Amino acid sequence: MANSSDSIFTLKNATTAYKKAKVDAWKLHTINATDFMQFEVGFKENIVDFLADISWVDYQKILSDDWLGTWSYRIKKVHPLEEEVAGEIFSAPVKQLKGCSVKSVDFRVFADPSVKFHLLSAFWIAMVAPKYNAKLRSCVYGNCLRHGQNPRAAGSFVGYIGKLQEWKKRAIGTTKELLNQKKEAIVVTADATAFYHSLKPDFLLNETYLRRVGVDLTAEERGLTRLLISAINYWASQTPLKSGLPVGLPVSAVIANLALVEFDSIVCDRVKPAYYGRY
User: Fold this and answer.
1) Is the distance from CB of 54 to CB of 123 less than 8 angstroms?
2) Alpha-carbon distance 187 to 149, whole Å?
3) What is the pTM of this model?
4) Non-local CB neighbours of 64 within 8 Å, separated by 6+ positions
5) Rounded distance, CA 13 to CA 57, Å?
6) What are the angstrom distances between the C-alpha of 86 and each of 81, 96, 99, 240?
């Protein structure tokens, strides 16, 4: 384990990351309470082992289902019979399975991360992600990280409801303003199909990408990022999809945001719309 006073691999940093990892996992409904409780039974020993694994980069140990966790299928969308939909809206797709005839069901591959994979996610978010995240434009409203590393802050992310409301309010407000000025307005909404499942994290260390966005990493930060990339790619290789980001692992949301930094620049600087917001 690194002992240098300026090393990121310290018990304090790991403990802070663990606190945030629990909140992040709970908010994404990927928390296994039993696993977290077992981790805390021998917390000091387990956190020291975690630090040893990631600082010495024990790939043979880390790139395994025991260290990273597994995956499962979860319901993405339920297609009921046409005559039974009746305009009902369900907060969760699984609720549609109760009391109606189902035509078909869509499933998606979902991560079942281990405590250590959640901890690696939160540790990277705390120690490295701020350098990348600083390059995001103000047009990004989704999955925004908290500024600073206050150990008392709940989780790694800013609450999504406030950001969602701001995103919608600015879009509607800009449209109304244009119409009040008797100007034509075209409102475009778009979504990327299977974005998480088609995205690989390797770009995080691509030299061209780093140069374009202006991110400069230390040796430890590069090593930790390389480990995270390897862990995600190994996890993905064990799924039917064989690639992509783990849906349900908090760091995936951060990586997905970072993948669109250059797209945001193109829209803002070349297209120059009256309003552009990404959530």
Assistant:
1) yes
2) 38
3) 0.89
4) 234
5) 17
6) 10, 12, 13, 35
Would the CA dihedral through 96, 100, 106, 112 be positive or negative?
positive
Token pair for 41: 């039974």
Report which residue type is found at 135: K
User: In Å, how far are 75, 87, 176, 264 from 213, measured between CA atoms?
Assistant: 36, 45, 34, 11
pLDDT, tens digit (0-9, with 9 covering 90-100), for 146-164: 866 566 677 899 888 899 9
CB contact at 8 A, 118 and 25 = yes
Six-digit token string for 92: 């969760």
Tokens (6 digits) for 99:
């009391």
How many angstroms separate the CA atoms of 185 and 279, rounded? 20
Cβ count within 10 A of residue 184:
6
DSSP the chain: ----TT-S--HHHHHHHHHHHHHHHHHTT---HHHHHHHHHTHHHHHHHHHHHHHTT-HHHHSSHHHHEEEEEEEEEEEE-GGG-TT---SSGGGGGSSS-EEEEEEEEEEEE-HHHHHHHHHHHHHTHHHHHTTS-TTB-SSPBPSS--TTSSSSB--HHHHHHHHHHHHHHHHHHHHHTT----------TTHHHH--GGGGG-HHHHHHHT----HHHHHHHHHHHHHHHHHHHTSTT-SS--TT-HHHHHHHHHTTHHHHHHIIIII--S---B-
Rounded to whole angstroms, the Cα distance separating 256 from 227 reads 18
pLDDT tens-place string over residues 45-88: 999 999 999 999 899 999 999 999 999 998 888 877 765 555 56
Strand partners of residue 109: 73
Is the pLDDT score of 3 beyond 60? no
